[in-house]
Design a protein that fits this description.
Layout: E1 3-7, E2 17-23, E3 30-31, E4 36-41, E5 46-50, E6 55-60, E7 67-69, E8 73-79, H1 86-91, H2 126-129, H3 145-153, H4 172-177, H5 206-221, E9 224-232, H6 234-246, H7 257-267, E10 276-279, E11 284-287, E12 293-299, E13 302-304, E14 307-308, H8 316-332, E15 345-348, E16 368-382, E17 385-399, H9 405-420
Parallel strand pairs: 12-15, 15-16
Antiparallel strand pairs: 1-8, 2-4, 2-7, 3-6, 4-5, 6-8, 9-17, 10-11, 12-13, 12-14, 16-17
Helix pairs in contact: 7-8, 7-9
């Protein structure tokens, strides 16, 4: 019986193991040469493994989310031309990830329920729920004011509540023990709501697991210092709209982030310790002359931080173009390792969903992160008059081991000055 064992290859760059992110084949599948079999993730990149042979999958080694050392078996393939039938070959092998799929009899038709939530049992009909005769409609229920208020707060019509007090008076206990299905013809708004009992458990794997671990390490190891300042964006927003209206077809559309990138480049020389990476294990702070700005980007697989390298060498339009290029590559899953590493300071923005403030988590081993929030029109006092201005809160976090509180505040105030006076963005020096 000719079998081929595919082992996790040496991906290079010192990688010793990889996490299984997704299987693209299952036990018993026929697999062709160059067909994608499995997707694995290292701390460097996500890689798809293709089959070097044609045959039938005989065994899978490892579940999604498990780590496999380099050189360990990933799956076994029975090569075509073997005398043994695939079913027999699979049966005499060590246990695979899971048993082959079996057909089960079709279940009886049930009401549709969302995934992970058990369908609630059908409610008994109103007629079946009748236990006591109703009080005639013209008869006013007997109840104390406090009892009436309790019934009102719970949305319970008192004419449906059987009274157990003297002369049929409805007591507080009668209201508390009453349920809406005790009443025939009770309105829909008084019906009880079925509890949602389902619980869905999902194992974190791949990028989502990596994000969770990195965020945990950042919060555990870095003493975050937060600072929020209010920016008047009126002049900058007017400039942005004018530039977008007059741009050529070859120029990218300008968002607010390229302006923040240019402002950071302008002020970093005065605050070099902010544009740095701190290796807390070695106790070494690396201050970078080049400004490599990480852009926090949401993707289908989670948060990625592609890098605009040497932002100090780019003008406004070039910054916008490079920003669009790296973020699109991150969302498409085509970003290279070099494109996702090496940032010295990060910008993070939720755009229109930015809210009034945030607590951004530092992208370790960096020491600073800047987070523009939502742009809104607010009434402000300017030169003694109330005027409407385009305002934005800008949130930031700093590694307090490296950046003192006063320096962090001075850095944000310098950023505010450049953003509020956009002509400074186009000057070599201030």
């Amino acid at each position: 019986m000719a079998n081929f064992i595919f082992r996790l290859p040496d991906i290079g760059e010192g990688v010793a193991e990889a996490e299984i992110v997704a299987w693209h084949v299952k036990l018993g599948d026929r697999i062709d040469e160059d067909q994608v079999m499995v997707e694995v993730m290292t701390d460097k990149a996500t890689v798809e493994m293709t089959s070097p042979v044609t045959g039938r999958v005989r065994a899978l080694h490892g579940e999604v989310g498990s780590f496999v050392p380099v050189g360990s078996p990933l799956l076994e393939v029975e090569l075509e031309g073997s005398d043994a039938p695939p079913e027999a070959a699979a049966a005499d092998k060590a246990s695979p990830v899971g048993p082959p799929p079996t057909e089960a009899p079709a279940p009886a038709a049930q009401p549709h329920a969302p995934q992970g939530v058990s369908a609630a049992p059908a409610q008994p009909s109103v007629a079946a729920a009748v236990k006591l005769p109703l009080r005639p409609p013209a008869e006013k229920p007997l109840a104390a004011p406090a009892t009436r208020r309790l019934a009102y707060e719970r949305g319970i019509p008192l004419q449906f509540v059987p009274g157990t007090g003297p002369g049929g008076r409805i007591t507080r206990e009668d209201v508390l023990s009453y349920t809406a299905h005790d009443a025939p013809g009770s309105p829909a708004w008084a019906a009880p709501r079925a509890p949602r009992l389902g619980v869905t458990e999902t194992k974190l794997v791949g990028m989502r697991r990596a994000i969770a671990e990195r965020m945990q390490e950042s919060k555990r190891r870095i003493p975050h210092f937060g600072y929020v300042e209010e920016f008047d964006m009126t002049e900058l927003e007017a400039l942005r709209r004018d530039l977008n209206a007059s741009k050529t077809s070859a120029q990218p559309r300008l968002t607010l982030l390229p302006f923040f990138m240019r402002a950071i480049v302008q002020i970093v020389p005065a605050f070099p310790q902010v544009n740095a990476r701190y290796d807390d294990e070695a106790g070494v702070l690396s201050v970078s002359e080049g400004v490599h700005i990480g852009i926090a980007a949401q993707t289908d697989r989670g948060l990625a931080v592609p890098v605009v390298r040497h932002a100090e060498s780019l003008n406004l339009w070039e910054s916008a173009g490079e920003l669009a290029r790296v973020t699109q590559a991150a969302r498409d899953g085509t970003a290279s390792r070099d494109m996702l590493t090496g940032s010295t300071i990060t910008l993070t923005s939720l755009g229109a969903l930015g809210g009034i403030s945030a607590t951004p988590v530092i992208n370790r081993p960096e020491v600073a992160i800047i987070g523009p929030n939502k742009l809104v029109d607010r009434p402000m006092v300017l030169n003694g008059h109330i005027v409407i201005r385009a305002m934005m809160n800008v949130s930031s976090s700093f590694d307090h081991r490296i950046v003192d509180g006063q320096d962090a505040a001075r850095f944000i105030q310098a950023l505010k000055r450049v953003i509020e006076r956009p002509a400074l963005l186009f000057m070599d020096q201030q």
